[in-house]
Amino acid sequence: MGKIVAVSNQKGGVGKTTTSVNLASGLVELGKRVCLVDIDYQANATTNLGVNRSNLKASSTDLFMNQVPVQDILIHVPKVEIDIIPAKFDLSNVEGALLSDDNKNYILANALEPIRDNYDYIIIDCPPSLGLITTNALIAADSVLIPVQCEFLAMDGLTQLLNTIRFIQNKKQYAERKLIIEGVLLTMLDTRSNIGYEVINEVKTYFREKVFKTIIPRNVKVAVSSSYGLPVTEFSPRSKASLGYKSLAKEVVENNE
Ligand SMILES: Nc1ncnc2c1ncn2[C@@H]1O[C@H](COP(=O)(O)OP(=O)(O)O)[C@@H](O)[C@H]1O
Ligand SMILES: [Mg+2]
């Protein structure tokens, strides 16, 4: 049964989408079958894989609002061998529309159940909030991967995220399911400044062995690759960011064997 990993941090711009897309691509290179789930209404993961949003028959919005089966939403992206549940901007309407739905926190978990066996990993790119959509992701997930940007105030807001994780861990206990921390990933390290290294120390002191050994460096190829609709691991395989994400994929696989 495939492992469901939610990539989450309610702070925007910390590398959630970049990590989701490139971890997915790195796992494919290691021979894993991977599905990427885009549940951020900004649809960056969808765009970063070069999927044209205007041609989509269905998106993650339909999964939440119209009970459309995931099999009818999934699209295969041949150039990277990833299946994706794409997102569209109208996903921003979901939180309001589902407020009074009793089952509102379990929609994603139920939707992914029928396809779990088809993959080794299902990676969920979460939105920058701790609202209903993120709750759905954390309930569906077996683990959460937390990207933390190597910048000033990096740890800000992490207490809130950890509280949310603890809350959901308790909720899931009854269903005899778990939510573990897959790891904390340090991203966008600028090797020329000291602040990044200070953040690394701070994060390691707090999270200890939960911090991935791999640290992703800041690298211009990341932005360039997404504008070409490709993961950096494909666009510029030898770039520092690509090597970082390939190493992360190895670490994730090793930790799960
Ligand atoms: N390692 C990196 N080096 C340089 N730029 C990066 C790197 N990782 C992400 N970025 C850029 O930083 C911005 C935010 O990253 P993104 O993955 O979209 O974060 P989030 O999904 O958390 O909002 C994007 O413009 C992305 O291209
Ligand atoms: Mg994002």
Structure in words:
It is a single chain. It is built from eleven helices and eight strands. The longest helix is centred in the middle third of the chain and has 16 residues. It is of the alpha/beta class. The protein has an eight-stranded mixed β-sheet with strand order 3-4-2-5-1-6-7-8, sandwiched between helices. The protein has one domain: Rossmann fold (3-Layer(aba) Sandwich), CATH 3.40.50. Adenosine-5'-diphosphate binds next to helix 1, strand 7 and helix 9.
Helix/strand layout:
Blueprint: E1 3-7, H1 16-29, E2 34-38, H2 44-48, H3 60-65, E3 75-77, E4 82-85, H4 94-97, H5 107-112, E5 121-125, H6 132-140, E6 143-149, H7 158-173, E7 180-189, H8 194-207, E8 211-217, H9 221-227, H10 232-235, H11 240-255
Parallel strand pairs: 1-5, 1-6, 2-4, 2-5, 6-7, 7-8
Antiparallel strand pairs: 3-4
Estimate the strand proportion.
15-25%
The CATH architecture category equals 3-Layer(aba) Sandwich
Task: Work out the radius of gyration.
Answer: 17 Å
Please tally the β strands and state the result: 8
SSE run = EHEHHEEHHEHEHEHEHHH
The chain-level mean pLDDT equals 95
Number of contiguous helices: 11
Q: How is the main sheet built?
A: 8 strands, mixed
Quote the distance from N terminus to C terminus. Answer: 13 Å
User: What is the CATH homologous superfamily assignment?
Assistant: P-loop containing nucleotide triphosphate hydrolases
| Secondary-structure content class | alpha/beta
Q: Return the CATH topology.
A: Rossmann fold
Which range best describes the helical content: under 10%, 10-25%, 25-40%, 40-55%, 55-70% or over 70%? 25-40%
Query: Total domains, how many?
Result: 1
Bound molecules: adenosine-5'-diphosphate, magnesium ion
- The side-by-side strand order for the widest beta sheet comes to 3-4-2-5-1-6-7-8
* Low-pLDDT sequence parts: none
> What global shape is seen?
globular
Question: Quick one: CATH class?
Answer: Alpha Beta
